[in-house]
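Handoff note, outgoing to incoming analyst
You'll be picking up this chain. Sequence as last confirmed:
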Amino acid sequence: MNIQIYGTAKCFDTKKAQRYFKERNIKFQFVDLAKFGMSKGEYQNIKKALGMKLEDLVNEKSKKYESSFIKYLASEEAKEEKLLENQELFKTPIVRNGKKATLGYCPDEWKKWEEEK
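Most recent structure output, in case you need it:
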């Protein structure tokens, strides 16, 4: 398995995801969205793997949600650009395993990944 966890250091569910993989001795790479972020190409791959719309990926409870004005932007491209500029707006954790991905804390799905190895 090639696990990447995208999240923020302060996110409770991201910490739970890291703990899940640590407890099972599964190596993972943690990407702090607040510090490093993800590229546009990586974002497109994750969005495709999740099979979700942009709106499903945005955390409306984020402190930056209101100040970013993302909900007032008209086009999908403008919203994606704003999301990539303010990556703390992503719902987290985003856990990726190759071409598969999950959004949020999903231990049942991760267990399936383990069984497939």
